[in-house]
Every structure is written in structure tokens, then in C-alpha cells.
Specification:
The protein is of the alpha+beta class. It folds into 2 domains: 14-75, no CATH class; 105-289, 2-Layer Sandwich (60s Ribosomal Protein L30, Chain: A), CATH 3.30.1330. Helix content is 45%, strand content 11%. It is built from 10 helices and 5 strands. The protein has helices spanning 5-9, 13-35, 40-54, 71-75, 105-129, 131-135, 167-180, 206-221, 249-255, 265-280, and strands at residues 139-144, 147-153, 186-192, 232-236, 257-263. Helix 5 (105-129) packs across helix 10 (265-280). The protein is elongated, with a radius of gyration of 48 Å.
Length: 292
Amino acid sequence: MDLPEEEKREMPAWVMTFADLMSLLMCFFVLLLSFSEMDAIKFREIASEMAKAFGVQREVPAFEPPMGTSPIFDQFSPGIPTPTPIDSVRQQTTDQRPQLRTFTSDAEATVQEAAQRQVEKSVKQLREVLQEEIRDGKLQVDQDRKRIVIRIEERGSFPSGSSDMTPAFQAMLDRIAGELVDLPGVLTIEGHTDDIPIRTARFQSNWDLSAARASSVANGLLRSPQVDPARMQVQGFAETRPRAENASAEGRALNRRVEIVVDLSDPLDEFEQRARDLLERGEDSLIWDLDW
């Protein structure tokens, strides 16, 4: 039985699907090729190896990039080649060691020791200058952490119930002022009394007396033009800060005093920072030569 002519000319249904697939594959590879960059160096290496393998004797000059024969290669040029990573890593060595130092707890202990020695050195100088007064019990020089305390007893400095200094006490203040010039820090003059009330035409209470005695000592130090008044402050504490019990004459005598307090907190911080800088630079030996 013969089929109709129209049915003989009809193509199979799979042919259209196959044609569409081939078209899509061709477009896909054309797009891939258009987005790619050709490494001319790699291409020449591959071509050379292929030539050796298949016996091709044609020599391609190094300056001549491989040319495509299809329309695609006529329109697209090879991309800029990037340097090919080398197979080995090269490095140089040196005998010099970096001069980096780690600030350890030992180094911090060295800084603290140097600062402590500096304070002790200043205390020693004060005691040498005032050794006669210290021996006679007129004053004491003590160290209290970051402070130096020059404690002046009432005996030989002020008459009882008065803020007028004796001439001998003024001469002692002149020597103290000469040493305080070389010491940094804030100078606080503190006046103290015992607990026996006082009421005179000049002093209404122990507060007035303690503040007046502290002011007298400050004025005595300022007789030296080298002492900066901006460093100085005056405080009166009356009987609020006793050294001993006021139950005996001896205890009350200890409580009647004037103290010159040298606060070295800020100068010590600067001193320690300078010491740390020397340690970080490796100049350890210079720490012990530092001064205020």
C-alpha cells in the first residue's frame, strides 16, 4: 500500500530536536572561545611539543604569534599573557638578626629598680645636707612610696603657740630650698598640731595655727628665687592627722610638726618611660645614668 505524497516528504520529528541541539552547542563553544584569552607562550610550548611528536619541521619565530585560520581567529587577537609561575621558590638568607626586643616582666622590673634607686639617691642627698639637724632630732627625711617627706619637728623651729620661725630654722630652710630646686614634683607644705585647743587674738583654733605655720615654711622656702611658686601648695590639718597618741607630752610633741612633701608621681612616670625607651633600643647600661 503506497503512502500519500505529503506523508513521504515529511521529516522525522527527531531531526528538529537534533538540529536545535547542534545549534545551541555551536553557539555555546563560540561564546566560550570569544570570552577566552590565549596565552601565546603556552601555545608555542604546546605547538613545539606537538611538532616534535608528529614530525613537523616548520619553525615558528618567537615573535610571531600563532594565527587562527577560522573567521573567529581573524576577528579576535591573543590575550596578553601573564607570567607563568616558576616551579621553584628561591629565598635569600642572612646572618644578621632583627633588633626587635620584647618588653618582658624582667625588663619592667629593671625599670622599677632604676626608678627606686633614683628616689633613694635623692633621699640620700637630702640626708647628707641635713645630717646635723637629723642628728639633733630637729627633722626627719623619709621615703613614702613615690613621695619624699621632710618632717620638721616643732622643737627649735617655732615657739609654742606661734607661727614665727626662729633664725636657726630659717637657715635650715635655705639649705632645704637649695636641694628642692633639683628635685621635680609638687611641693606640699602641711601644718599639724596636737589636740590642745588654742584661742588667741591671732589664732582662733588649731586650724589657724597649723595653716599659718605651713605658710611660714612656704615663705621661708620662697626666699630662694630658684624655687618655683607654681610647684607649691599649703595645707593645714590641725590635730586631724596625729603621729602618736595625745595622752602624753611626748606624744603631743610628735604631733606638732610641719611636713614638706615632695610628690614624685609624675616625674617618676616620665623617668620610667625614658628607661623603657632605652631598653627597647638595647641601651640597657644607660638606664643607671638617668637623672631627673
